[in-house]
Amino acid sequence: MGLRAAALIGCCCLLPLVLPAAPGVNCKTGCHPVNGFCEFPSECRCQPGWQGALCNQCVPFPGCVHGGCAKPWQCLCEEGWIGSLCDIDIHPCSAKPCTNNSTCIETGDGGYICLCTQGFTGKNCHLRKGPCIINGSPCQNGGTCVDDNGFAPHASCLCPAGFAGNFCEIDIDDCESSPCENGGTCTDIGVGFSCFCPHGYTGKLCSSRVIFCTSGPCENGGTCSELPQGGYECICKPEFVGATCKHPSKNTSLSGVNTETNTQNYNPPPKAHHKSVHQEHQVLKITMKETIQNADPLLSKSQVICFIVLGLLTCLVVLGTTGIVFFSKCEMWLANAKYSHLLRKKKNFLLKSSNGENLSVNIIFPEKIKLTNYTKNYTAI
Prior knowledge:
Number of strands: 27
Signal peptide: 1-27
InterPro entries: EGF, EGF-like_Ca-bd_dom, EGF-type_Asp/Asn_hydroxyl_site, EGF_Ca-bd_CS, Notch_Cell-Fate_Det
Distance between the termini: 132 Å
CATH class of the domain at 1-89: Mainly Beta
Structural class: alpha+beta
Largest sheet: 3 strands, mixed
Protein name: Protein delta homolog 1
Transmembrane segments: 307-328
GO molecular function, one term: calcium ion binding
Mean pLDDT: 77
């Protein structure tokens, strides 16, 4: 109904665009005066929703199967058909869909039901009730029961891969046929097998060789070459060395003295990536001037920093100890000076008030006052 409604809306929008015949132009004889128009003589062009040589036939709704129209975009069903597109047969039993002498009953909405005779089943009663339906499926491990659509006297089983037997009860050893290639190790995993491939091979059956050079292992412009026994070899430029041409070669001079060093071929273990490098010869040249100029210092930078830190810590300890002793002595000196002044004042006061009498005075000094500083003039108790 959605498509039909959309088409009707489009029709309503297009119908007002009726183009009359151009003034003074005679259209084709018989051309519908309303549904047709012309721009040139003896022409008959149809308005939207109309068709035919004279524009006197309406256009039915798109998709209309067994129907026609009286007005554009309609779908008027023929006898025996219903539905928005007239595609549902009211009398489906007239085609005799039910087989094996079964009875067809129409449901009224275009559908039907088959009442099967004894021994048959299915929508159209085309399946015979054989052993698989009557007794159920005896197949195990996902096997499919087969009875020739009910006509076979006994049921049989169609087994999936990895199983065998009358009822698919036997688990077949999938590795018995040695499916793994190139020395791969086969492992039976129940419903199939798995191949453990040796170095240099890959794939379900180990049938594909690993292309090591695809990942571009050679660096610094080195050329990668696959080896017949597996692995790869990097052919380095003269400026670089190493299994993957990773390290730069060291070229220095020694006052006309040439020292040749040979790099060994890289022989990996059997199960490693068989990387190797070609044999190279390098010349090491060192001059005496460079040896003197590049002589190592007595102390490294880290050792110099360590000595500086230790020196600073030592200075701090010495300054701290000296400060503590100085402040302790200073405090004692100030206390002695204070009480010496006090004693002189008291002494003068007593001498004036004694009028020549012989008096004795007991003085209690604080803990930090040293008595030895006053024994010259006073007697200790």
